[in-house]
Amino acid sequence: MGLCREVMCDPRRWCVRCAHKRHLYCADQLSDWDVDELSLDAWVSDLESVVDAIGIKRFPLLGVSQGCAISIAYAVRHPERLSHLILYGGFALGGFKRSPAEQEKRKAMGTLMRLG
């Protein structure tokens, strides 16, 4: 089974395979809802704190979806710390920098989610 197909079919199996004979650390932005700032800079700073706390000197970094932007920003700040940069499922434009029709659709979805 190809790696890309494996990610789509069973992400957990793919993570286990990537971590074989290695340490795998997962960091996400959803673990703490009580934060002072929601920004790319804050998320990169959080990643820096996690990496420093673990004590890793050089490592491969995988960014998935929104994590791609965070991973790229981290790589720009600390290229000497990364052995590899792997990006999967990222996007070139944020949600509010897309077409007016797409922005309107996102606002409508936000309203629907907020109202339950």
Strand content: 5-15%
**Spatial order of strands in the largest sheet:** 1-2
Tally of structural domains: 1
First CA to last CA: what distance?
Answer: 39 Å
Count the DSSP helices: 5
Order of helices and strands: HHHEHEH
The level of helicity is 40-55%
Described by strand count, sense and barrel closure, the largest sheet is:
2 strands, parallel
What is the radius of gyration computed over CA atoms, rounded to a whole number of angstroms?
A: 17 Å
On the 0 to 100 scale, the average pLDDT is: 81
Structural class: mainly alpha
Shape, per Cα inertia axes: globular
Residue stretches low in confidence (pLDDT < 50, at least 5 long) are none
Task: Give an overview of the whole structure.
By secondary structure, the protein is mainly alpha-helical. The chain has one domain (26-115). The protein has five helices and two strands, in the order H-H-H-E-H-E-H. It has helices at residues 3-9, 11-18, 40-54, 67-77, 100-115, and strands at 59-64, 82-88. Strands 1-2 form a two-stranded parallel sheet. Strand 1, helix 4 and strand 2 (82-88) form a beta-alpha-beta unit. Helix 1 packs across helix 2 (11-18) and helix 3 (40-54) crosses helix 4 (67-77).
